[in-house]
User: Fold this.
Amino acid sequence: MLQITRIFFPIALLALLTGAANAQQYTQTVKGIVLDKAVKTPLIGATVTLLDSDPPVGAVSDAEGRFRLPEVSVGRRTLRVRYLGYKEAVISNVIVNSGKETDLVIELEEDLLAAREVVVLAKAEKQKPLNELSTVSARTFSVEETQRFAVAVNDPARMASAYAGVVTAEDGNNIIVIRGNAPNGLLWRMEGVDIPNPNHFSSVGSSGGGISILSAQLLSNSDFLTGAFAAEYGNALSGVFDLRLRKGNSEKREYTIQAGVLGLDAAVEGPMRFGTRTGSYLVNYRYSTLSILGKLGVNIGDAQTDFQDLSFNFWMPAGKWGQFTLFGLGGLSKQRYDGLADSLQWEDDISKQYAWDFTANTGVLGLMHSIVWGDNTFLKTVVAASGTRNGDRTEEFQ
Assistant:
């Protein structure tokens, strides 16, 4: 009887602990800022409600337009934002993770109606771009879409191939063809300035490559245009990717590590003090998974593929002088094949007679300043430097 008791007690204790673990509800904080879409000023007193919660959860934006929803259940959530004199906004598919706070930037459009009292119910329109001057052939996309779309692999260009009129040139890279136009007619922009092709293993004059340099950890809601471009988009013949970066967490430090087929990502974000003001920083570094496997002795083919990239976004408020943002990205990529010096090995494959290596390096560094003047005017200035460097060497064995 004693032996049976000794066996039964640990089993019962294990079952009790397992039940307690399954009953645990994981939660996380959802916070952000509510802004006027036209002049980017904070909206004080906007109500933010979590729709799919019981009991209802809500918050009101403070004097800086910021709100905070604590203890939100993890998963995909829907938020509704209301403010007097502005159109209601419904934000769907907000991803809440247990290991990281969710930080949102919500822009409301002013509702100017000279009429009797009406109730405006407007859901977020995915076809409506962030740039108000782009009225047709444009749509906004979110980071969540780059993670959810099939074969997107956290890559905006691969995700765009799911849109009407857009196809991939080939499966081995993210070069896209828009409405039959040449792929090199695609324009890339970041925070309002033109940038070089932000992809690893890109060739001179191309608009794509093997893998995107910019990590999805830094992307905010951005625009993709396929025609009828606004006047600000120059040198674009087929399409435009107008990318925007998100700010880091301005309240606490957070770390993110992500391992995937393409690479190992490590990101850090948190508050940054400037006297009495608090800004934020966000830095992400990625190293090729293929490089790691190769150094561990795993055979991954005849050619050696290496790449790494670094991207960052520093936000610095300056009071009456506005706010400054320092952003940038850099990517190093190299592919090498040593060939075979033994001529007997060339009979079955003539390419083994050649040794070659290909390098492609890209860098962007920019400084943005924005300031609000009065109630109806704001000024945004961006200064950036960018460049690319490609190398291609081939050696033939005799």
